[in-house]
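Justification of resources, computational component.

The compute hours requested in this renewal are based largely on the per-chain cost of generating structure records like the one below. Each record pairs the submitted sequence with a full structure-token output. That output is archived, and it is also reused by downstream analysis tasks.
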Amino acid sequence: MKEKFNQIYKKKKIFSISKVENNLIFNFLRVKEDDDFYKKKIFYKNYLNWLSKTLKLSLNQIRKEIFSKISIKKKRLKILFIGCGFGDEILFFIKNYGRNHFIYAQDLSETMIKYSVKSLKNYNVNLNISSADSLPYKNSLFDIVFHFGGFNQFKNKKKCIFEMNRVAKSSGTIFFSDEGMAPWLANTNRFKALKINNSLWSSLPPTRILPKFSNQVEIGWILKNNFYYVKFTKKINSFSLDLDVKHKSPRGGSIRSRYENYYNKKLSK
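The structure output for this chain reads:
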């Protein structure tokens, strides 16, 4: 048990340990989060039912479209679910992509984690209570880091993306998605109606805060163009460019010399 823990988790203080369905649940949060909203599952289910009816898509169709954007090629992936909620996406993943994968999940809510343990008791899933902006996992562990449906409300979005990237393997995939209608629909009455109903529908993909060495970045909209998604692979080093190639033109110079002349300073990496 201790050996397995040390292979996955970095040295981080555990503030409490509980046992649910013979599974140990590690709580890495110093302060107990307010779970009042989540104590009744009906709130969560009501939102999902509302979303399904509004989009005119079944929950299965919604999840199928979300996961269609991720390439599941290996037979034994190591995947992390960020903000796993009640474990519905995990259950969908197992039923559609097999149970041989190594699945890990975390959530800020103790109530959700304990419910997920019970609903996933027949499967080998490792869950913990932690914050998405301070994940307890070691560097470069996961083939896929996945999150759906809560990113817009993360307090420190840049730190959360940094953490997703940190725990992904080199060339691993990071994927997250949330409400946010496609920008070309911004002047439509549909957009205005959804924005009035919930301002989160006007959210845009946070492209400016992606890690600077992100590779194969894909930005798109799914679920009838009502949710944005961001997918990229982790790259350790920057792409190599030759900034000293001379231009054969009246202006002359190179990328480097033009930059240095314009800003009157050396071009750094």
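The mean pLDDT is 92. The chain has two domains: 2-233, 242-269.
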